[in-house]
Specification:
four-stranded mixed beta sheet; 11 strands; Zincin-like
Length: 235
């Protein structure tokens, strides 16, 4: 491994089966795959030939990660589909969650540093617990209602903890939704549901699929897709 002033730590991994030098961009550096006959010097020559592009992509990656961090502290007012989240410093010695009247209150010790990763993890573990319960309660019913309205057939609806995609659809017409879908407003939740329902007709993203999407969204699929891109799952 070597350290680069612009790109951070560069880790070299040899793979005898690789045919070309591969570069994976990380927030704090690069992970470089070396074919059997290549050396780190060979890799650095390649990296230097595309350095500007790598620096730009790494910067974009860092910005994306920063945007997806939804920090929880005393200033947080997080609205989910069915409840609001607030965090309150108290004299408690531990973290406590209470969901009542569509308000999830997180009480935490007033001396706690909320920005520490381990504390954010505890906050989000609790929030995710309630999101999962609400997702199981709301999303299957909403999916069935929209499927009935637009003439789709669904075999099953499952709730997962995915942080990489809002939903997916299998060839057997089983639809999976991330519990974090409840962080979106209702109209975008419906957009994601309709997106997966359209995959029960067309498994790809070809013209026929988008024709279905335009039909079920009254021609608003492009605008809704653009709006969805502004939202991020918690990192």
């Amino acid at each position: 491994m070597l350290s680069d002033a612009e790109l951070g730590n560069i880790e070299f991994v040899r793979n005898a089966r690789a045919k070309h030098i591969g570069v994976r961009i990380l927030k704090s550096g690069l992970k470089v795959t070396l074919p059997g006959s290549s050396t780190p010097d060979d890799a650095m020559k390649f990296i230097n030939s595309i350095r500007k592009k790598l620096v730009a992509k790494q910067s974009k990656l860092s910005d994306s990660i920063a945007q997806s961090n939804i920090y929880v502290d005393k200033n947080t007012v997080l609205q989910t589909l069915s409840f609001k989240v607030v965090a309150v410093p108290t004299e408690r010695m531990n973290i406590h969650f209470l969901l009542k009247n569509e308000l999830l209150t997180i009480q935490y010790p007033n001396h706690m540093n909320c920005r520490l990763d381990e504390n954010q993890k505890q906050f989000w573990n609790g929030i995710s617990y309630f999101l999962r319960n609400e997702a199981k309660r709301l999303l299957p019913a909403r999916t069935l209602a929209l499927a009935t309205k637009h003439g789709f057939t669904v075999q099953d609806v499952k709730i997962q903890s995915s942080k990489t995609r809002w939903g997916s659809c299998s060839g057997r017409k089983t639809i999976n939704f991330s519990l974090y879908l409840l962080l979106l407003p209702q109209h975008l939740v419906d957009y994601v549901i309709l997106h997966e329902l359209c995959h029960t007709k067309e498994m790809n993203h070809g013209p026929k699929f988008w024709a279905w999407m335009d039909k079920v969204t009254e021609g608003k699929s492009n605008a809704l897709r653009a709006e969805l891109k502004k939202y991020h799952m918690p990192n």
